Amino acid sequence: xxxxxxxxxxxxxxxxxxxxxxxxxxxxxxxxxxxxxxxxxxxxxxxxxxxxxxxxxxxxxxxxxxxxxxxxxxxxxxxxxxxxxxxxxxxxxxxxxxxxxxxxxxxxxxxxxxxxxxxxxxxxxxxxxxxxxxxxxxxxxxxxxxxxxxx
Length: 151
Known about the structure:
mainly alpha
């Protein structure tokens, strides 16, 4: 059984998402991006597969202990933490505060732009004209048979 298999089984058993795993690793000052973490969870035959090293697994386990048990100053109950994973809504965006901000509030009496909703938009597709070879536009005079009659 490889480190990748162990890491995958822990993620499934504890119902952890990638952003939660990144936060757990940050508890022990280990930085990894979601993309790199996704590469660890890929299948071995995938082109971007990355092997989970001993250091990554060790830091994850140390961070998991802190995440589940807490610190000496602030102890936690592990089962409460695991139950909170189920109740935590999934984050859609990173760093954006999780909320979308609109420039003006939505009002139900706002009118749609004219023509919107009356008919579905149908594009008029025209067949493109057959392209002509650009050489056909030029006249080549090789100088033969172009004598001019002089008076």
